[in-house]
Amino acid sequence: MSNVLEVKELTKQYSKVLAADKVSFTIGEGEIFALIGPNGAGKTTTIRMISTLLTPTDGDAVVAGHSIIKEPAKVRECITYLPDEAGAYKNMTGLKYLRFMAGLFLSDIDALNAAVDRAKEICGLGDRLEDKIGSYSRGMIRKLLLARAVMTKPKLAILDEPTSGLDVINAIEIRKTIKTLAEKEKMSFLLSSHNMLEIEFVSDRVGIITGGHLMVTGSADELKERYNAKNLEEVFERVVIENEVH
Amino acid sequence: MKFINLLKKELSELINLQMILGLVVAMGIFMILGSIMDTTIDEAKEETTNVTIRLCDRDDTEYTQELIKSIKEDGNNVRLFDTDGDDYAAILKDNDIKDLIIIPEGFTAALESSKRPELITVSRMTSAATLSNLNVGTSSGLALIKDRIAADVAQKNGMSEQDYAIVENPVVVRDNTVVDDKSAEISPSDIMSKIAIQNAVMPIVVFVLIIMTSQMLMSAVANEKTDKTLETLLSAPVSRGAVIGAKMLAAAIIALINAGVYMFGFSFFVSGATDTVTEAAENLIASTMSVDEAINKLGLSLGGFDYFLIGLQLFFTIMICLSVSLILGALVNDTKNTQSMIMPIMMLAMVPYMISILADINALPGVLRYAVYAIPFTHTFMAIPNLMFGNRLIFFAGLIYQIIVFIVCIFFALRIFMSDKIFTIRLNFGQKSKYKARKRRQQKAEEQKK
Ligand SMILES: Nc1ncnc2c1ncn2[C@@H]1O[C@H](COP(=O)(O)OP(=O)(O)O)[C@@H](O)[C@H]1O
Ligand SMILES: [Mg+2]
Question: What fold, for A3-86+157-245?
């Protein structure tokens, strides 16, 4: 199986903090991979490097055959990125926002219209799309932004904390949408979450990251069995303890 | 295509109800001020051309009656009032007038015994505004009475008419003004009254332009940063150059529209004032040359090339604003900071603006002058006077300095935006960083877990 993303020893040193230390993992086609770890673990830093926003101090990542260091422009054509806690232009209507963003990815007007139609369907906001984004609730904005991120059918959609700060209903809807798109359309996802329990339901494989180190990767079941744990939170606890012993 | 898409978005972000309302209000204020200016000046003019002299003759002798008659016969509009007592407020109120000249009892007697006779004037003051207190009736009435008495005294003592004319107005003054190596026969104050108001327009427009452009671009960048829409934008397949370019162009377009409206409104406001003031001035010096002619002769008028140079300098001023606000906007991590971030630019514009109104910057003492020259916007405020008064060297030095400042600023701005500094740069004014706080919280949580 060809990999959509290959992360090779990606490292980021801020002026004082080593936020990502030789992080390596891969994501296959149609796969949902989740980086999980507590706040400040280095998830956002890793994700921003893959999204070509931050320059790695060391290492590389290859997205659909393009290096984020050598061909960042090519990489940006293959990905979409949804920042954590992201907002949208408050004075625009939802529909206008979708059209604006689609215009950045697609030049062909028919393709653009098709993408917007797709987003309309996925976000499920109906007539509210005609309203200004300033009047949207947090959950509505997140749905709009998720629809925006997947409407152009990118090879890899990168979603940082897609469900954080949402109520249970909205979180479930978002997770369902992601899962459906991966299954039906073979889209690949890179997610992150600090909520280790909920992520189990949506991801095919997870990577546990803390203090900039990616400790282990594997499917939730694999990891639970390996660490003899009931859930991923327990897995995380045992991974941390194990690494302290060494 | 993508650039147009970006530009359209930036423009629609900037053009909102608030901005349009602001423009309309500014326009309205200028219009109202303009028409107030117009009517007060018209009233003042009306009063000068249609003078009513209000008199009260308490002496009531043959001499005073004759005096009043001769003033009337010269075509002056004289109204006589019958009053007594010295409650002047009541007198003005009862007769519903603003001013009155009283010829007191004993006026003729004093004259006859070669003493200086007294006249009493009463004027109502209603405000501190200069134009509304203009009291032409009293002053022309006094002048006429003095004139008559002087002529009578001269005649009584056998002075010839020519001699009396000299006594009345001993010298003829011929004013000359020199600018650089040119001179014209006109008084400096006549020239000032014409160019002062014109030159007041430019600094206001420049000031508005600087503040508006900077404010708009800065908050455009800061908002995108805090909303994280900038991350979305820069991870999309568009060049960072296009994203920044669209933002800068949109801010410049809107600022220019604003400046245009202000320029129009303000010139509307001053046009009434200048016209009437110079009209009056021209009447007085009709014998020599008109103010416009004199301005041309002195080389104070600006030609096409001068306007081109002024435009060029304005362009670089805007470019400096744009590049500086890109940097300042990138430093904002919290929308609450946006307002305070405009302060540096505000100061840089305010200082030369104030000084240019109050003093000639080129004549400031050494160190202070160079300190003011070091502020790039100074040269924009000085552009017109420098070109008018032939200080071309200072003008071009200022222009070159601005271009250098622009290159330096845009260099740093692009370094921030083209690298990942746009996401990592941060200014902490002493407060603990969000990240440190978060990290500490996380450490605590982990300790509790153990
Ligand atoms: N711009 C920055 N400058 C300095 N340190 C940073 C910056 N951004 C993040 N960090 C640090 O890097 C570490 C990882 O942060 P982050 O990647 O945001 O974690 P996560 O997304 O997992 O919560 C943290 O310790 C944080 O303090
Ligand atoms: Mg994060």
Answer: Rossmann fold (3.40.50)
